[in-house]
Amino acid sequence: MNPFEVTAYITLTEFLLNHDYMEDGFLLYMLCGALAGVNGLMVGNPFDVIRTVQVTSNKKLSLIQTARKIITKKGIQGIYMGFTANVYRVAGWNSINFCCYSLIEKYVAEYKRNQARTQY
Q: Most exposed of 8, 53, 61, 107 (fewest Cβ within 10 Å)?
């Protein structure tokens, strides 16, 4: 999980709830988690590809030099190699991850409210 994914998740969830596009619950959390994962992947995948090329290359090139080499040879889509496979992995993982987090957060808040009521 990275800051791009968390920000996207919160923004998407609030947007869909505030505009009454979806009800609060499991489906909302799963959808927003998957979309947040894809958002994070769009930002992070180029860096993963560049790092992989750097590690497997015999030449010691900088980040910028490696990016230029990839883009020169394969075009801008070259820095998104493996994107489709990663989408399946990240969307599935993030949907479950954010869904579990949100449901647990919801139940803990409800538990705390119930505890506060019973104490007084």
A: 107
